[in-house]
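TL;DR need structure tokens for one chain.
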Amino acid sequence: MAIFIKSKNDTKKMMLNVLIALVPIILFSIYKNGYLPYTHNKTDLFGLFYPLIFILVGSLTSLIAETIYALITKKKGYFKRSYGFMPGLFLSLILPLRTPILILIAACLVATIIGKLIFGGFGKNIFNPALIGYVFMLICFSNVFSTNNYLNNYELDTISKATPLTNASFVTGIGSYDELVKPYGSLSNFFIGTIPGAIGEVSALLCLVAFIYLTLTKTIKWKISVTYVATVFIITYIIGRLLGQGVYYPLFHILSGGLMFGAVFMATDPVTSAVTPIGQVLQGLLLGISTVILRFLGVEGVAISILFVNMLVFLLDKIGAKARFNFLKAILYFILICIIILASGVILASGKRSDKKDPNFEIISKEKNNNQIIYVVNQKGYAGNIKGEIILENKKVVSFKILKHYESKDRYELILKEDYLSKLITNQTNLDNIDTISSATITSNALKRMLNNVLLDN
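>> reply
TL;DR here they are.
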């Protein structure tokens, strides 16, 4: 690739720099997901080192797959320059802690074989291999990405909320500081990384340190990262301002969902990212736009955006090459993208302008019977709509039943075991003080919102 020809760094040195940048992130994942639970007597010695074991299993799976490939193809010197452990290493860092090991191995094999080797090996793949494995899991093992799989044993007892972005998808409109940030502490918790999330992508601080190191060593293309993060900030700032929220709102989006990790390590992958300076800026702009749009559609933003833009890199570099000595040839593209950024902010804000109505709530029927009102409603749960019957008498809830649901058996049994519906009825005038159920966070939160929405309608 051109980047290796122009740079004084050879591939080996670049990969070494990437590993050095990842070391603090890996150590933090062991501290957060192993050491903290261990010191609070929430796990044993195996659990203490489990995050490291998880990462090693992913890395070794990819390494073994590439070793076999090198032996079969007999390509001279391929193994030495293939860096076969990389797909599994990155994939393991962006997965939930409680991902079953067999599923991790399967995903790493998909990442390595389909994401990399099927294209001819290192330097020839057009998609980020680790993200191919990630999307494979999204499609085939979506249950792995449930809230509780992201929580370590200590967080299961201390945090009743879902991961920040999952929690954001259940608020009315775009939410408020108290709904989005306060359940996890403050923005400093987001910045440091003491929030629920994937094994290695929660600490924005360490991602920023990695970005500075990799930029100073000329390992990554900093224009992509900076433009990506800046674009997300601008669009979400517009949305927040239009809906009366402060600067915390764009910061929430930047510090959540592994965006910083994706911007530093995934979007700048030397094989699948733009080479020309203008192409890199265009890539960052498109990544930012697509990430925000996908998030507001309720889809995983970072991974899918990067894979989508991977397909367009050759076009971006083509534009960049033509405009290298004449920027005017690219000016129309920048004007168009700026218009899209502004339009995205305005349109997404207007779509969320619903201060009193919950988009995840639907009234199926509403019947009056003497002094009673019988509601049959739908509320979005974790696996689909939860259908419930709520009966009000003199504007007070006297009955709450679940008629139909798609939640897992374990989650539903927890709701029954905790007698959660009765608790909601008893505390219907003060629902904010009712905690969600650990291991059934999204489901219990959906039931609470269902009851609250009916009370608001009445």
